[in-house]
Specification:
This protein is of the alpha/beta class and 398 residues long. The protein contains twelve helices and 19 strands. The protein is globular.
């Protein structure tokens, strides 16, 4: 990605007001264990072209959730937060606020909508690249559309809008049409501030797939989103496994094989909660030529006890995980590119970045979610490891 912008010099702005009528609290409604807005923030953070992510909101709860997942907050005034306020007005206020804070506005910026949780980092990078390559002023994501649109006239007759109803063209005969996804928009900053509209001048399209076409508008959409996100995560994990020769599965313990909670008795004894489906998945995985190891900072006997029952190797009380992992890999003749690492917190970040494939449970800390290749749909201690095991087992049968 070259030409007029640096690969990591752009800002992303996500408007998220608190007054949703159709779904109260929509922008932070839980979807597969995370607030809705988290998915868009994470996609922006992981995009190569984005250096900062801003959420403009009038709602304290949205601001707190956005900050938790790595966004900077711009407080949106009440007059720009009502039902009739446009996204453009929020974007203009955000850009002016950023400039007033002493930052230089980039040549163009990215506008993201948090009601599109299936947005991927590559959608953001691809839309920016499409605008640069086509030397456009604006760009947006769109999915191919092959349907026939109709309207009903005042006299009750129905007429085709994008077709002549007397001529039924086959799909391959129709001129290509695209449906705006509402997920990603890119605009030249100066032109936007002048025109005050997301589309002006020459407009480029970045083509996405219809399989990820989803805009949260009704309560039922939240259920669809959770299901589609689960399918998407599994597809991405399987795609990653096709690209790597995985020889080892290495996992953190707390927050991966447990729900990251600890139970402490009055005598100081500790216990944790694990998931039997994770254990069964690891048991089935032992049939494959893949080494399995737990790498934990905790020195608690409960860690080694669980690993003994599962018959997997365990290294615990480890402060410098990456150094230990590299040594372990050399001992077993495994390259780091052949490791699938699963971690959930800041002390896993280096390993998540160094491994060939990395994954983080859904409820992981943003420091892990934002660097992992795959964001799993299950929480730690609640099927996240089984999700990984199932993918490895599926891959072995292909």
């Amino acid at each position: 990605m070259k030409n007029t912008a640096q690969p990591a010099s752009l800002i992303a702005i996500i408007p998220a007001r608190g007054g949703s009528k159709g779904i109260p609290g929509k922008n932070i409604a839980p979807v597969a264990g995370r607030p809705l807005i988290a998915y868009t923030i994470e996609a922006a953070i992981r995009a190569r072209c984005i250096s900062k992510v801003f959420v403009t909101t009038d709602d304290e709860k949205i601001a707190a959730a956005a900050k938790q997942y790595g966004a900077e907050i711009i407080t949106r005034p009440a007059e720009l937060s009502g039902d009739t306020a446009s996204s453009e007005s929020a974007l203009i206020h955000a850009l002016e606020t950023i400039r007033q804070q002493g930052e230089t506005l980039p040549e163009f910026f990215v506008f993201l909508q948090c009601t599109s949780p299936l947005t991927l980092p590559e959608d953001i990078d691809g839309t920016v690249e499409a605008m640069i390559k086509q030397q456009a002023d604006t760009a947006f994501t769109a999915a191919p559309f092959h349907g026939f649109i109709w309207k009903r006239n005042p006299d009750g007759n129905s007429e085709g809008i994008n077709h002549d109803k007397l001529v039924r063209l086959r799909r391959q005969e129709k001129e290509p049409e695209f449906l705006e996804t509402g997920a990603v928009y890119v605009m030249r900053t100066a032109g936007f501030l002048e025109k005050k509209h997301r589309f002006f001048g020459k407009t480029a399209i970045y083509k996405t797939t219809t399989e990820r076409l989803l805009d949260i508008d009704e309560p039922e959409d939240l259920i669809r989103a959770a299901r589609m996100l689960s399918d998407l995560a599994q597809d991405r994990l399987l795609t990653a496994l096709h690209s790597k020769d995985i020889k080892a599965l290495v996992m953190d313990f707390d927050g991966v094989l447990t729900n990251n909670k600890v139970y402490v008795t009055e005598t100081g004894e500790e216990s944790v909660r694990c998931d039997r489906s994770d254990g069964l998945g690891l048991t089935m995985l032992r049939k494959l030529p893949i080494k399995i190891m737990v790498l934990s900072k905790e020195a608690n006997p409960v860690v080694s006890a669980r690993c003994r029952k599962l018959q997997i190797e365990c290294l615990q009380g480890i402060d410098h995980k990456l150094q230990t992992l590299e040594t372990w890999c050399k001992t077993h003749g495994i390259m780091m590119d052949q490791v699938l690492y699963v971690g959930n917190d800041a002390n896993d970040a280096e390993c998540l970045q160094a491994a060939g494939i990395s994954a983080a449970p859904a409820d992981s800390h943003p420091s892990a979610l934002n660097v992992a290749w795959i964001q799993l749909q299950a929480n730690g201690g609640d099927g996240a490891v089984r999700e990984v095991c199932d993918a490895l087992l599926t891959r072995s049968k292909e």
